[in-house]
Specification:
The structure is a single chain. The chain is 20% helix and 26% strand. With 137 residues, it is α+β, with helices and mostly antiparallel strands. It has one domain: Ribulose 1,5 Bisphosphate Carboxylase/Oxygenase (2-Layer Sandwich), CATH 3.30.190. A 4-stranded antiparallel sheet has the order 4-3-5-6. It has a two-stranded antiparallel sheet with strand order 1-2. The radius of gyration is 17 Å and the shape is globular. The relative contact order is 0.22. Its main location: plastid. This is Ribulose bisphosphate carboxylase small subunit, chloroplastic. InterPro entries: RuBisCO_ssu, RuBisCO_ssu_dom, RuBisCO_ssu_sf. Keywords: Calvin cycle, Carbon dioxide fixation, Chloroplast, Photorespiration, Photosynthesis, Plastid.
Amino acid sequence: MNLVVSGYRSRLEVWPPVGKKKFETLSYLPDLTDVELAKEVDYLLRNKWIPCVEFELEHGFVYREHGSTPGYYDGRYWTMWKLPLFGCTDSAQVLKEVQECKTEYPNAFIRIIGFDNNRQVQCISFIAYKPPSFTGA
C-alpha cells in the first residue's frame, strides 16, 4: 500500500506479530547506544522523574503465567537494582548503575524506569541492555 504524505510517497508496513518480542517504550527500535541511552535518561531527568534500574533474569517481556492471556501483573515486576536514584542530576550516574548491574548479572535484561513522585506513577520504562544469549524471537 502506498500513500502520499506531504508530497512524498510513503509505504505503510505492518510489524510482524510472530517472532518479535515486545518490551517497553522504544522496543521497536534497534538497541540504544550509550549516547542514546544518556539522552533518554536526560529526558527523564528534565521531567523531574526519579530514575530506577531494574533487572530480570528469566523474561524481559510480558508473558503468560496465570492463564491463556497475560494478566496485568504477568512479567511486569522485575528486581530493583539497589534503590531508586533520588536526587540524581546526571545521566552518567544512571548509566554507571546500569554498567554495574550488567557486570553483576551479564545474562539479565536491564531496564531504566522513571517515576513521577508527585503523581505516584511510572512515566517511562525502556530496555537498557539485553543479554547476549537473547535471540530476539
